[in-house]
Each structure stands twice: as C-alpha cells, then as structure tokens.
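Q: What would this complex look like in 3D?
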Amino acid sequence: MTQTEMIQILTGFIGSVGFAILFNIRGKRLVAAAMGGLLSWFLFVILSAFISSEAICYFIVAWAISTYSEIMARVLKTPTTTFITAALIPLIPGGSLYYTMANAFHGNMEGFLQKAIYTLQLSAALALGIIVSTTLFNILQRIIKSKSAEKQTQV
Amino acid sequence: MMLELFNFVMDIGEQMLISGAEVHRVEDSINRMCLALGAVRVDVFIITSSIVVTVHTADGQTHTQTRRVVSVGTNYEKLHLLNELSREICEKGITQKEIEQKFNAAVNCKKFPLWFEFVCYAVIAGAFTLFFGGSIIEALVSLSVGVAVRLGIFFCDKLISNKIFGKFFSAVVATFLAFWAVKLGWIADVDKVIIGNIMTLIPGIGLTNALRDLFTGDSIAGLLRSIEAVLTALAIAAGYFLVAVLGGFAL
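A: Here is my prediction, written as structure tokens for the whole assembly.
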C-alpha cells in the first residue's frame, strides 16, 4: 500500500464521519457508519490492485458495503440507508464530475464527453452494486420466513 | 380503526420521507401500520413530494388522506426513532398517548449545534482535497473555503428557500475563493480546492438513490430524484462557469 493510498483511506474515512454527523447519525450507528466509510475505500484500494476497471471495483465495493449495511441495519435495528449513504461517501465521483465541468469550460469536447460518461458509469456501478445486494437480502429474508412458517405448520 | 390514529400514521410517514427514507420503505411502513391498526385494505402511493393513502375499514368505510412534502433534510436519528415507533405500532399494545409522545420526541430529536456543521463542512472539504491528491496548503485553503460555503448556504436558507439556487451560490463562493487564492499565490491550481468543496455540494447520494428507485420499480420517484440531481449538478457547473468566465481568472 502506497502513501497516497493510506492518505486516501484516512481522508475518505474523515469525510464519511463528517457526512455521518451532518446526517445526524448518533451513538453506535455513528461508529458503524464510520467503519463502513473506512472499509469502503480500503476495499477499493485492495481491489484496484487486481482489477483494472474502476467501474467494476466500484460495483464490487458498493455490493460489499451494502451487504455490510444490511447486516448492521438488522443488528442495530435501523433503516439500511443510514449506513449506505455515509459509508459510500468516498466513492462519490466528485473528481470526475469536476473534470467534466472543467473540460466543458475549456472547450475540450472529447475530454468532456469522456469524463461525463465516466461519471455516469461510476454512479451506475454504485447503484447497481447496492441493488444487487438489497435484492439478494430480500430473497434470503423471504426464504428464511417461508422456512420458519413451514416449521410452525409442521408443529 | 380510529381516524385519529390514521392521522398519526400519515404524520409518521410524512416525517419519515422528510428525514430521508426511501419511498419504498415509507410505503411499506404505512401499509404495515394501517393493517396493524385494523384496516382491511390499504392503498399507498408515494412520490418524493406527495403521499396518498386510502384505508378501508372493517365496517365498510373508506378514508383518504394526502400529504404534500416540500422540504427534505437528511436526519437519520429522526428516521431511526420513527422507524422504532412504526415497529411498536405494528407489534400493537401501544396506546395513543404513547404514540403521540414518541412521535413528538422523534420530531424534536437531538441535533448537533449549528457551529458544528460549519466545522464538518470545513473538515469534509479539507479531507477530500487531500483525498484527490491535494497538498497540505491546498487542504488548508479548502478548509477555510468550506466554512465560507456553509456560510453561503446559511444565508441562502435565510433569504430564499430554494435549494438549487443555494447550491449555485455556494459553487460561486467556492470557485471565486479558489481562484482568489491562486491569484494571491497561495496555491498553484484551483482544481483540488474546488473538488474538495464540490464533495460537500454534489448530489452524489441523490443520484445514487435516484438510480436505486428507478431500478427497484419506483419509477416516478426515481425520475423526480434524477432530475433533481441533474439540476443540482448543472447549478454547481453554472456557478463554476460564471466565476471562471466573468472573473476572467481562468484566462
């Protein structure tokens, strides 16, 4: 892990905590949300060493962090959104959105299109990762529910 | 089912939506609460700005209520308390007075003081300047710009309650101060300072939530949220363009 990556993990974590406080997350939930923020960029750094496509990394991290959020939400009995929104803060493509704007301003149309598409790609990857995780959890929950219902009827 | 309890269910749903719950979750909660309170059939339709609920009671009556939701401010502590309350209503055995008390407690839940929000904005902006490869000096500039951005939002909230304009104005403030810092020779490049501050303004969560709503089938809510996110991004870009063109700093 290089120094830049360490700085990114640390500052991404600080950013997550900042947003968690702005979103008025408190107590144990704040700790869980902050840990998610730390985990998300840490995972990204590790994955990006093996996978060259950033969008795929985003997808996997979003999936993993949403799964973490679903679990924490059930443990701490609170809506999942709380953890997802705070923990995925470091993955928000703010940089590429800025360069989209800057390229448009300097009349660099090629760069503008490239960055615009890239920003959309990253956002879509994020959303897809969250949706896949949520859907899997819903299916799992339904299976568990129908199993416990079966047991009750047998007794 | 008592009509007064129906009012509470609507209030809880409205407040959940305001504090940042997804459309799907609010629909689900209202549905469950109404059924637990003795409704025979519940029809719920929610988009980000409106709630429509019709309940059919056991004695053959129908009641419909609508709520117009104007402002949304993310407050997960409030959402947490409301979520707990809706669970308790579903488990039954809770009196009307208790519902009222818990609802008021949730709406008036603890918040961090305003000055602390300024600190958060500054720290977030500074942290993300470093995150995107800025130097320590750039981070320090970004930190102070962050305070100015929050101040801009503060005045916009007081003067005009238009969120999109607030973002535009904040982008103007951030870009202007960044270019000014370059002119004073404190930093060499505006990029990292602006990016750090954009992170506090950007509708990243909005766009992600919008796409989530779209993919999970709440298409109208998803479209509304997408448009909102795109407009916010355009407002930020417009603020940046205005300063960069009129100021002539970039040329």
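A: To summarize the key features: Residues 3-107 of chain B form one domain. The longest helix of chain B spans residues 219-247.
Q: Very helpful, thank you.
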